[in-house]
Amino acid sequence: MNSFSDLIKQLWQRLGSMSLAIVLLMVLSLASVIGTVLLQNQQQTDYLQQFGPLWYWLFRSLGLFDMYHTWWFLTLLGFLMLSLTACLWRHVPLMLKEMRSHKGTINDRSLKRMELNQRWRLGDGITIETMQDLLKKRLHGWEFKSTEENGVHFLRADKGRKHKWGYISVHAAILIVLIGGFISVQFGFRGNMSVAEGSMEKTIFFSQGTETAELDMPFQVRCNSFEIDFFSTGAPKEFRSNLTIIDEGKEVLTSDIIVNEPLFYKGVYIYQASFGDGGSDVTFKFYHIDGSQKTRTAATQVYKTLKDEESDISIEVTDFRPYNVENISEKFGEKKFKDIGPSVEYVMRGNGFKPVKVKAYMNPYIDADGNNQGSWMMVSVSGDAKDYEPVALGLDLTNPQEWQLFHAFFTRMSEMQGARNEKANLKAFKLAMQDVFGDERPADFQNMAVRTLQAVQILPKLPWPVIPMLEDYSHVYYTGLQLAKDPGMNIVWAGSAILVIGLCIMFYLPHRKIWLVIRPADGGTHITLAGLTNRNHLAFQQTFNDLFTKLDEEFSHHKNKGSKT
Fold it and tell me: Are the C-beta atoms of residues 158 and 532 closer than 8 Å to each other?
């Protein structure tokens, strides 16, 4: 039984040792650095692409993608909390006892070991009470304790006697912060919610290890409206959501939120995090490039797939943007930002051609000089937006007469019996202009001619049966919200405040001790002035020397015989 008790005591002492606490702190600090450098709770595909299969599976097996919830991190955290608890349990009673004891006497051996030590030998012309009063006068604001033992008089002066509260506060504060962090990890959450304008949601999604988990909130969030302001460069300046909290079917709170100004309800902070398309209605206009001059429209929504049976293609709409601010300046180093209008992104699939990612613009491109360059789109054969290449279609498809002119030109060209020279092209174009516009030519017919000739070179080479262009839209945003509950946050703040106070006590409130020892001997009096401090020794040495000088002057006025030794 005794051996078991001894074992428990040894383990308890080992848990409270400084060496173990330092090792645990170093390991946790290293792990925290890894958790800071390696972004946590990202998509697994992103990790796989970034690190490759070997490192991905190694990091995943160690739990580094969600490190703060792993068993080994929580175990280290628990051992550190237990170590701090053992340390406080062992040392706090001793520190409190030491602060309360305030022993007034001091032995000769301790006096001799002190570096700050000065002595006098005085005659009988000055009383003990006078000497003690002179010291008290010079040490205003200090605590004093007078003791007499075996005919020797001790006057102890203390300042900062409660300094050990700094050590107690720092250790206790670290423990409190760790407890708050543990509570947050175990009982808190942080997840994302996307709410389209006019709709309600109550479920958040978050990464849990290598999986995506979901959690229902005890209330619903409705997005009434979403507003966004842009800088002249097109970068978002501010985005604002007007939200209503619905609890048990009742509207309990309506408020605007912007970045860094969250909404708080039932212990949950609701942050404005992102925005995007909330499922806008879009209408495509299909331009058949089989020579039939046929056009038709088809309606769908963002994030849905439109299957067109007539052309045997499918269009997966991935995004819509009502604004596209670009630098349209053609001069190097010069910037001229302009909104070039709405765009829709989609992936087009069909028989006979490879799937392509397309960003089609609703408006024709107007260059920096105001010239109409016709309709255009960005095309990525790889499916990655980074590989977009501009494709100028030539025709301004927002003008139906240019589509007619294009086909009329082809018809007239076929009547030229195979002639393909500049003269034949000019004649065919004039006849096509007559077919479409009659005797009244449009004001920009020359630019229209250039665009038509460009379309003749480009459109027949496209492998698609139709060209899907954005015709109309009804836009709606979604607001990206981040909902977070951190039940340990207030505990962490309290611990942080205690930590700051404790550090201030440790660094700015040193414990300074001075003894005046008066020992009658040989028909006179031997006086010893000794001092000790636990911090800032140079400043205390100056204080001690100044005190000795002043007392020496005071004592010299009262002594009748004897000399200082």
Answer: no
Checking 306-311 for CB contacts under 8 A at 24+ apart, the result is 308/466, 311/286, 311/350, 311/465, 311/466
Residue 57 CB-half CA count within 13 A: 2
Who contacts 560 (Cβ-Cβ below 8 Å, separation ≥6)? 123, 124, 125
SS (H, E, C) 34-100: HHHHCCCCCCHHHHHHHHHHHHHHHHHHHCHHHHHHCHHHHHHHHHHHHHHHHHHHHHHHHHHHHHH
Q: Which residues lie below 8 Å from residue 462, measured CB to CB, with a gap of 6+?
A: 289
Sequence ranges of the domains in the chain: 2-90, 106-162+509-564
CATH topology of domain 106-162+509-564: Double Stranded RNA Binding Domain (3.30.160)
Quote the CA–CA distance of 11 and 53 in Å, as a whole number: 43
The tens digit of pLDDT for each residue in 104-131 reads 888 888 888 888 999 888 776 678 888 8
SS3 for 464? coil
Return d(Cα 42, Cα 60) in angstroms, integer.
12
How far apart, in whole angstroms, are the C-alpha atoms of residue 377 and residue 442?
Answer: 26
Q: What is the spatial distance between Cα 403 and Cα 436, in angstroms, rounded to a whole number?
A: 10
Going from the C-alpha of 333 to that of each of 28, 328, 329, 510, the distances in angstroms are 49, 12, 9, 62
If you count them, how many residues does the chain have? 565
Per-residue model confidence as pLDDT tens digits over 161-188: 888 898 899 989 989 998 998 898 888 8
563's CB contacts (< 8 A; 6+ apart) are 121
> For 102, phi and psi rounded to 5 degrees?
50, 55
pTM here?
0.70
Q: Name the nearest CA neighbour of 393 among 365, 431, 429, 432.
A: 365
Tens of pLDDT, residues 200-232: 999 999 877 667 788 999 999 999 999 988 888
Q: How many CB atoms lie within 10 A of CB 30?
A: 10
Distance CA 541, CA 118 (A): 12
The pLDDT value given to residue 560:
45
